[in-house]
Known about the structure:
By secondary structure, the chain is of the alpha+beta class. The chain has one domain: Methylpurine-DNA glycosylase (MPG) (3-methyladenine DNA Glycosylase, Chain A, Roll), CATH 3.10.300.10. Helices cover about 15% and strands about 25% of the residues. It has four helices and eight strands. Strands 1, 2, 3, 4, 5, 6, 7 and 8 form an eight-stranded antiparallel β-sheet that branches. The longest helix is centred in the middle third of the chain and has 8 residues. It binds a DNA duplex through β3, β4 and α4.
Amino acid sequence: MTALAQALPAAFYDRPVLDVSRDLIGCVVSCGGSAGVIVETEAYHHSEPACHAFVGLTPRTGVLFGPPGRAYVYRSYGIHACLNAVSEREGVGAAVLIRALEPISGIEPMRERRGLERLESLCSGPGKLTQALGITLDHNGSSLSKGPVLISEPPPSWREFSVTAGPRVGITKAAELPWRFCIAGNRFLSRPAR
DNA sequence: CATGGGATTGACT
DNA sequence: GTCAATCCCATGC
């Protein structure tokens, strides 16, 4: 394990979701004795139809409209869990989808939870990284500052990289918005940046 | 209460 | 390239 870094405060997420989405690149997600650096994110905002919050306040979207800095975890295609960081002022309805991590510690537990060996396959997708870190729907609504899922500032060796923006992956509505952010050329992206 | 659609992944042609 | 798995929940009757 690397030295414990400072978890980002809730105020970090209380900003425009595009800023939070870009600034989360390089930060560290940790859970279940494993951790990885965020190399790919997507922003979602209630004002556009690809966002779950677009339909308004329902039992499903309650966390999205809650205070910033909490985890919104939803089930995708009946099989996978996807991790989001709720952003913007309470009541707005916005979040950042964490799409890919570069594993940095607790690699063996990740391999066990994923049932795979290949490093590049452990966290290179939103459903993969939650499985690798042991993140489940039970974490929905939990604080990303207090855990058990934590997001911390970038490690010292991760302060220099270039972030590119492009269209989001796998959506049918508002697909033209360039709200996906990645580290250009990183080997651990869910798919290459365009 | 019945229906349908995913912010995906992995296996297969 | 195609496609099924599988379940939560929004929507409509």
